[in-house]
Amino acid sequence: MCQLLALNSNVPTTINFAFGGFAARGGDTDEHRDGFGIGFHAGRAAWRVFKDETPAATSRLAAWLRRHPLRATTTLAHIRKATHGAVQRSNCHPFSRLWRGRSWLFCHNGQLEGFRPELAPGWQAAGHTDSEAAFCWLLQTLDARLPAGTAPDVPTLRPLLQELADTLSRHGPFNFLLSDGHALYAHCSTRLHWLARGEQAHPYGPVQLIDTGERADLSTAHAADERSVLVATTPLTHEEPWQALRPGELQVFVGGRPVPRLAS
Fold first, then answer.
1. Which of 30, 78, 196, 236 has CB atoms 3.0–4.6 Å from 93's, for a disulfide?
2. What's the pLDDT score for residue 217?
3. Is residue 74 a contact partner of residue 114, using CB atoms and an 8 Å limit?
4. Are 248 and 188 in contact (CB under 8 A)?
């Protein structure tokens, strides 16, 4: 299956170091050779998405992005192992849509069997993947369930997304990342991990990538008051306190921190 990566922080920051290890999994240290994509949120109504159907480990675009790192408060990345849809740019993640005045980015890891939703005009997918169909179905369903004209906040959206994720998971693994430029929603169906940085208990400091062996001292590139969360299918670094999400768990991150669930 594919692999996912995201960063959420309280100030615009770069995912460049983590992306270097992640990109290696796209055809070098792992088998995800069928393209990659990365999306940067520059506010709730603006985003930039870069996609390439060539392996991330050898892509000229991926190399260019590493030489010219962009800063954003939320970044989503994906390396693809094709199961539905041809190896082409339109089938690479993340997928993007404007909805309720916000830009939404979505990445999926898994395979949804027998999922053929009825999508109304305006909600049709541009490519041919089960992942993009799921994204369109999610937004279409949320649009029908929520009062017209409102932009949903985390307390409103979280239980609805949990319900819809449970529904889609009946068709197969549905690990996904979703962002509106403010909140990052991460759903684990089979495997997903997260790591908080910038706290007193785990400040920025020396780290080493698992896939490439590259080392860096992140304290020289990040401000003392910067907080961030990385989410990845599997841990990217040695000797950092990555935490596994439970199967079926939907976690939300805002400003580089997990958002506690409201008491029911």
1. 78
2. 93
3. no
4. yes
Tokens of residue 105, six digits = 């980015």
* Residue 228 · residue 9 · CB < 8 Å: yes
Q: Among 133, 95, 94, 96, which Cα is nearest to 111's?
A: 133
3-state secondary structure of 171: coil
The closest of 184, 191, 201 to 251, measured between CA atoms, is 184
Q: Does the structure show a pLDDT above 80 at 85?
A: no
pTM for the complete prediction?
A: 0.94
Query: Sheet containing 102-109: which strands, arranged edge to edge?
Result: 95-99, 102-109, 175-179, 183-187, 250-254, 257-258
Residues classed as catalytic: 2
Q: What is the DSSP letter of 207?
A: E
Buried b (16+ CB within 10 A) or exposed e, 159-173: eebbebbeebbebbb
Q: Give the pLDDT band (50/70/90) at residue 80.
A: confident
